[in-house]
Amino acid sequence: RYARLYEQPRQLALRGHEVLGLCLSYRPTQVRDEWHPASPGRLRWVGLTPGRFGGLTYPRQALRLLRDFAPEILVGASDVPLIVLGGWLAGRLGVPFAADLYDHFESFGLSRLPGLKLWYRRALRRAAVVSCVSEPLAALVRDVYQTRGPVIALPSTIDRTLFHPRDRATCRSALGLPVMGRLIGTAGGLSRDKGIAPLYRAFMQLAEEWRDLHLVLAGPVDPRCPPPSHPRVHYLGLLPHARTAELFCALDVGVVYLRDTPYGRYSFPQKIYEMAACGTPLAVACVGAMATLFRGCTQALYEPDDAASLVNCLRAQLARPEAASLEIPDWSELAVHMERALLVGMGQVGVPLQTH
């Protein structure tokens, strides 16, 4: 119950709309049907399980639920297959289709299934409106996919009740980390494809220079690129979302790694806002939206896939830390833009949308 896929429907309901969220699981799970508090609107979540037919009945089940609900607009999100399914369902219902892209979905493994990329781009071209997590992604959808409707850049944001500055020593103690010394680290998918390897190499070099330097990691490990075997590497496993705030507040420098790939160029890592809200100085790969976001704090930028550049960035941030001052919107603020985009898609607002 956090981040974009939950907060956007919730915030729209809080603005007075009636919202139905359909969750179609790829793995066997418990069927769910529940109402969440969202007055003055209403928010119902229905979670379906693939069952013995592996999800082949999802289109029929979703169509039945949606016909009972009678939406005025249908939003597809989450990944390529569900965008395709959302476009098909909207066509069967005869209602406008909107798409929300929280990432460059063509970088996901599911997009490799035969025919899906073609159907995905077709669904986006026909969409009445598309919202994208970053301006580079919006430009791709607008210029390459040639979507007919408005395309807006709509970032994700964070829960400020969780992510805020805390006492560093207290957070370190709570996580079992060294209270003294210098800690660098990150949380998320520790994947070679996303750019974790330069961080490992940079730490090994800096660890020889600074005997009090530690590397702290949390998240799923890529077996092709495991963390260094070193006594000052601390792996915390899969932390609950709420505890990642403690980790970020425990660090002297937080690292946000990306590669210069389609995924890196079009994404907007959530942990950028999370770390910044905690007041943590950052070392960020200079690619895509990050280059624009950190143009006022260039000391925090390093060249992607370049361990030597990251070493220099970490040295500077550890010696004279600079915390980026980012304007972080609230979910309620973003909901105003999302609501307007959907009303445009439904033909209820005729004034052109701003693109960012």
- Termini separation comes to 26 Å
Low-confidence stretches: none
Strand content: 15-25%
Order of helices and strands: HEEEHEHEHEHEHEHEEHEHHEHEHH
Average pLDDT score: 94
Shape: elongated
Secondary structure tally: strands: 13
What strand line-up does the widest sheet have?
Answer: 10-9-8-11-12-13
Biggest β-sheet strands, sense, barrel? 6 strands, parallel
Secondary-structure class: alpha/beta
Q: How many helices does DSSP assign?
A: 13
What is the share of helical residues? 25-40%
Radius of gyration, CA atoms, in whole angstroms:
21 Å
Overview of this structure, please?
- With 356 residues, this protein is of the alpha/beta class.
- It has 13 helices and 13 strands.
- It has helices at 4-14, 58-69, 80-93, 116-126, 135-143, 168-174, 197-209, 241-250, 262-266, 270-277, 289-293, 307-319, 331-345; strands spanning 18-24, 32-36, 42-48, 74-76, 97-101, 129-132, 151-153, 182-187, 213-218, 233-235, 253-256, 282-285, 301-302.
- Strand 12, helix 11 and strand 13 (301-302) form a beta-alpha-beta unit.
- The protein is elongated, with a radius of gyration of 21 Å.
